Amino acid sequence: MLRLIVAIFVALTPVPLSAMQSAARDFTFASIDGGEISLAAFRGQPVLVTNTASMCGFTPQYDGLQSLHESYGPKGLVVLAVPSTDFNQEYADAAQVKEFCEVNFSLTLPMTDITTVKGRDAHPFYQWVRAETGFVPRWNFNKVLLDGDGAVVATFGSTDRPTSRKVTSQIDALLAE
User: Fold this and answer.
1) How many domains does the chain have?
2) Residue 170: which of 157, 159, 156 has the closest Cα?
3) With contact defined as beta carbons under 8 Å apart, do 112 and 142 qualify?
4) Annotated active-site positions, please?
5) pLDDT digit string (tens) for 119-149?
């Protein structure tokens, strides 16, 4: 009887997310274009993951994200935008988000579908980042920089512009490896 109780307890005990996935490359996102974006496809490349919103005071940072995509993309950086309604400043419809970004910012960088980035319903990637580093986006345009192995190298807040020296120095260091 004791074995049965122990077996049931073990079966019902959740495995910590960090034990299930050891690197960011283990995650996929739904793409705003349909299909999936697998971080495994970016193995060996640094990735800057940014939660975004269309109706935020930081929305002009899309220009900086696109600039990084254009200037650092050929060197290996992947810039991934993750639209989120968590802070009530994003359209509820992915087609609207995509159109807004194309019309206003001419975005060509990869973009996920609308994604939850905080709380118990957060996307597994953001749950993993929280488990690994304690970092949770506190507002739109928070950034997570991953190295080519999928480990978190740095996190940045909303006020850290994508093209700031604080961000680009970290990217430069990763690309120099």
Assistant:
1) 1
2) 156
3) no
4) 56
5) 999 999 999 999 999 999 999 999 999 999 9
